[in-house]
């Protein structure tokens, strides 16, 4: 996974060569094709568990190729009472998931009024099935999803991607963040056991740091993001406290150091 | 009854010589046997209430709910055959969900009742099905019209109401509803009136010795500030359908029992 | 003889608004042997009386496991119960596959209720001829539901269905207040006592004719059959009806031939679906 979502899940052209269409003979149209690449994309989502919950963040940029096309896109979504979902990759597929699938799912769940609700692991299971189903139809939803929340009396964090692959870890990041942020996150959360020693403040600080590094190094990122903090009561499935901070700006971020770099800014030589 | 023995009442979708569809009328009879249901349209929301007769003390109190939620902003209270009511509500949810899929917006209450009228009507057209043994009261709020209340009958007919009542005690309930200044009351007042209306309707029919549970829901402006700032006319806002908080229901029921008892004593004094 | 014209199919209302085919289907439950269900704060129990058609034949299965947290007891047409239990099992599997969640008891019950309702509204179909007791445990605790062919479902603290089940219900009504805090053993014994009360005069509970199932919070649905029932019958002691003097005649014992007649019967709520 890198910051070219169009390359996710594809054999690399530089390794395997480009796809040989001649296998279809003279039928120029070839087989029926569905989504072959994302169009408008969102970059990394980063998330980290701490002792009493999870922090998750994603910036507000939607890129059209390398063009910074929209700067007010919300890529985190609260689903039900226990869960925040974050999506990178294709923004229209994300909107389909958030505004159609998950919205209907929650409305239908609320009909029952029977004291049961979909918590983080249920939402995650559902999304995993949808992603795997779509890839099996050869029509994937071009996203990497992080599901953060509270379940079984402890923090929950897991990912599902366009191939239907599922993965869980105390620290997760999608997109470019999988390369740049995960090493930073693993410094304080190398394994599940270490989560018990991470405080809420520490987790927030680490995520903020990751967002800053990503902004410096990821050309598809921006300096405004949304961060959600889920804090639960240990050992219970009571409704966790979910704090969503919108339009957060990077702290102590400056391009000043770059002024002396050749090729940057208004240098003429 | 002129219908019996004529042969015109043995199949659905058949007219009698004087232009009646008896099977639809018989379906309405099933409704008359069901527990009373009422709906009250208020200034800032809608209140729905049903008289849930408790047939056995072995039943789990508070379980076996009779009022259903449709989308987030509507509720349906039914009188008649309960399994039919569940089917009807389930169809309403399908309609609401399909509307959302197509238009990416919640279905207006009027459109939902319109569609449900069509659905009920379709079950009067064919001899291969029977009509719904259900009259449903649909209440909800939408941004264009604010709170509205509708009632759809087995024939498919559906009207808008300020106060609606159906089921066994509907006559007494209607008489009480007509005394209210609808829709110029708040949902909180509506809750109190609904409890009293159900109680009076219950006392008015043959089951008055049987125990019953009062089940109540409301749809009220999602934004309380929008409702509070307004002194006249309906509040035009989206609402959420949910059970009325337990304490409020209990208080309303307690007060209603006192009121009804007081009235009865007054009558005795006068008599 | 007066011929009821309104009972040929389930798409015809009688002038009183009743659907006789559905009411007759409810009678089919009473042709089956009794089943009892009850719940405490921690457990749900099913107890049922099995019948065999002939001495050398096996006994008809009365309790079916659906999932590790859920099972049913039936009275009436066993093949219909098999169809419904298969459907419940697939619903149960779907819930685990899609949501990674054991299906909440009320939801699987509502699913069969909706399925049954359709059979009461379309020509060419017949209502199911079986009543079910569904016992299970989910995140909101143990539950007991009764399912009827009309599509009606109700949640109970304890109830009984099938032949002579009124006597069992009478026992439950007298004792239900002690169910809530009963231990697993006490709850099973209450169930057996209720079932015992539904026995005919010359019958008794044996390891051959009793099926029993228990499910608890954190404890899987466990079916006791045959010799496994012995320990419970020992704890029960007396295996014959304690009511003495034989069974009272009750509504439940009326033969199917005594099914409701139309004329003048406008008793409100005669059809159980309208409350």
Automatic annotation (TrEMBL), chain A:
It is found in: Cytoplasm; Nucleus. Keywords: Cytoplasm, Nucleus, Proteasome. It holds the Pfam family Proteasome. InterPro entries: Ntn_hydrolases_N (IPR029055), Proteasome_beta4 (IPR016295), Proteasome_bsu_CS (IPR016050), Proteasome_sua/b (IPR001353), Proteasome_suB-type (IPR023333). GO terms for biological process: proteolysis involved in protein catabolic process. The keyword Cytoplasm applies. One of its GO terms (cellular component) is cytoplasm. The keyword Cytoplasm applies. CDD domains: proteasome_beta_type_4. Belongs to the peptidase T1B family. Non-catalytic component of the proteasome. This is Proteasome subunit beta. It comes from Ascodesmis nigricans.
TrEMBL record, chain B:
It is found in: Cytoplasm; Nucleus. This is Proteasome subunit alpha type. Belongs to the peptidase T1A family. Residues 261-271 have a biased composition (Acidic residues). SUPFAM superfamilies: N-terminal nucleophile aminohydrolases (Ntn hydrolases). Residues 8-30 form the Proteasome alpha-type subunits domain. Residues 225-271 are annotated as: Disordered.
From TrEMBL, chain C:
It is found in: Cytoplasm; Nucleus. Its main location: cytoplasm. Residues 238-275 are annotated as: Disordered. Residues 6-28 form the Proteasome alpha-type subunits domain. Keywords: Cytoplasm, Hydrolase, Nucleus, Proteasome. InterPro entries: Ntn_hydrolases_N, Proteasome_alpha, Proteasome_alpha-type, Proteasome_alpha1, Proteasome_asu_N, Proteasome_sua/b. One of its GO terms (cellular component) is nucleus. GO terms for molecular function: hydrolase activity. One of its GO terms (biological process) is ubiquitin-dependent protein catabolic process. Residues 248-266 have a biased composition (Low complexity). The 26S proteasome consists of a 20S proteasome core and two 19S regulatory subunits. Belongs to the peptidase T1A family. PANTHER family: PROTEASOME SUBUNIT ALPHA/BETA. This is Proteasome subunit alpha type.
């Amino acid at each position: 996974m890198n910051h070219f979502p169009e390359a996710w899940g594809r054999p690399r052209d530089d390794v395997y060569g480009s796809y040989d269409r001649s296998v279809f003979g003279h039928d120029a149209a070839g087989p029926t094709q569905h989504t072959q690449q994302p169009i408008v994309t969102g970059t990394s989502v980063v998330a980290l568990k701490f002792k009493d919950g999870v922090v998750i963040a994603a910036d507000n940029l939607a890129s059209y190729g390398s063009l910074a096309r929209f700067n007010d896109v919300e890529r985190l979504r609260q689903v039900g009472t226990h869960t925040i979902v974050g999506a990178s990759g294709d923004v229209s597929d994300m909107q389909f998931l958030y505004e159609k699938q998950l919205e209907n799912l929650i409305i239908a769940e609320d009909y029952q009024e029977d004291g049961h609700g979909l918590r983080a692991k249920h939402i995650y299971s559902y999304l995993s099935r949808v992603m795997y189903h779509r890839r099996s139809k050869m029509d994937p939803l071009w996203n990497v999803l992080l599901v953060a929340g509270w379940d079984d009396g402890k923090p929950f964090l897991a990912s599902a991607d366009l191939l239907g692959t599922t993965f869980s870890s105390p620290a997760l990041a999608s997109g470019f963040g999988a390369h740049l942020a995960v090493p930073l996150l693993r410094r304080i959360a190398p394994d599940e056991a270490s989560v018990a020693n991470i405080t809420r403040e520490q987790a927030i600080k680490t995520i903020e740091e990751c967002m800053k590094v990503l902004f410096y190094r990821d050309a598809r990122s921006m300096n405004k993001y949304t961060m959600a903090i889920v804090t639960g009561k240990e050992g219970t499935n009571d409704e966790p406290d979910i704090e969503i901070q919108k339009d957060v700006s990077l702290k102590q971020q400056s391009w000043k150091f770059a002024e002396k770099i050749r090729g940057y800014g208004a240098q003429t030589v | 009854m002129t219908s019996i023995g004529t042969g015109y009442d043995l199949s659905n979708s058949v007219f009698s010589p004087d232009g009646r569809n008896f099977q639809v009328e018989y379906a309405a009879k099933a409704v008359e046997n069901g527990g009373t249901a009422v709906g009250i349209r208020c200034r800032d929301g809608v209140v729905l209430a049903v008289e849930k007769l408790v047939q056995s003390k072995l039943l789990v109190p508070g379980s076996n709910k009779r009022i259903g939620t449709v989308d987030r902003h509507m509720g349906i209270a039914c009188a008649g055959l309960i399994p039919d009511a569940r089917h009807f509500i389930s169809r309403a949810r399908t309609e609401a969900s399909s509307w959302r899929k197509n238009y990416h917006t919640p279905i207006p209450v009027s459109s939902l009742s319109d569609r449900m009228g069509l659905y009920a009507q379709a079950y009067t057209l064919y001899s291969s099905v029977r009509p719904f043994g259900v009259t449903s009261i649909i209440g909800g709020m939408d941004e264009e019209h604010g709170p509205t209340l509708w009632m759809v009958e087995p024939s498919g007919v559906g009207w808008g109401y300020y106060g609606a009542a159906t089921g066994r005690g509907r006559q007494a309930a209607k008489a009480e509803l007509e005394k209210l200044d609808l829709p110029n009351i708040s949902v909180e007042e509506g809750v109190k009136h609904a409890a009293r209306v159900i109680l009076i309707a219950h006392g008015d029919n043959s089951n008055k010795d049987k125990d019953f549970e009062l089940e109540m829901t409301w749809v009220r402006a999602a934004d309380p500030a929008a409702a509070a700032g307004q002194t006249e006319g309906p509040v035009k806002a989206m609402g959420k359908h949910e059970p009325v908080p337990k304490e409020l229901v209990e208080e309303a029921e307690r007060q209603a029992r006192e009121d009804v008892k007081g009235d009865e004593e007054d009558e005795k004094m006068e008599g | 003889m007066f011929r009821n014209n309104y009972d040929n199919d389930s798409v015809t209302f009688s002038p009183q608004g009743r659907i006789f085919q559905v009411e007759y289907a409810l009678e089919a439950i009473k042709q089956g042997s009794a089943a009892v269900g009850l719940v405490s704060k921690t457990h749900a129990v099913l107890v049922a009386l099995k019948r065999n058609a002939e001495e050398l034949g096996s006994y008809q299965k009365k309790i079916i496991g659906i999932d590790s947290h859920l099972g049913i007891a039936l009275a009436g047409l066993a093949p219909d119960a098999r169809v419904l239990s298969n459907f419940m099992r697939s619903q149960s599997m779907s819930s685990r596959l899609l949501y990674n969640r054991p299906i909440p008891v009320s939801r699987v019950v509502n699913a069969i209720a909706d399925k049954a309702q359709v059979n009461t509204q379309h020509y060419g179909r017949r209502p199911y001829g079986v009543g079910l007791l569904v016992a299970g445990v989910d995140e909101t605790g143990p539950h007991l539901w009764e399912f009827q062919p009309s599509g009606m479902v109700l949640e109970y603290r304890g109830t009984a269905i099938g032949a002579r089940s009124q006597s069992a219900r009478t026992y439950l009504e007298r004792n239900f207040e002690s169910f809530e805090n009963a231990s697993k053993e006490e709850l099973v014994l209450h169930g057996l006592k209720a079932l015992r009360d539904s026995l005919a005069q010359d019958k008794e509970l044996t390891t051959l004719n009793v099926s029993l199932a228990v499910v608890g919070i954190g404890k899987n649905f466990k079916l006791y059959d045959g010799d496994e029932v012995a320990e419970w019958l020992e704890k029960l002691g007396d295996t014959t009806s304690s009511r003495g003097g034989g069974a009272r005649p009750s509504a439940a014992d009326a033969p199917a031939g005594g099914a409701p007649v139309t004329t003048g019967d406008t008793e409100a709520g005669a059809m159980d679906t309208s409350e």
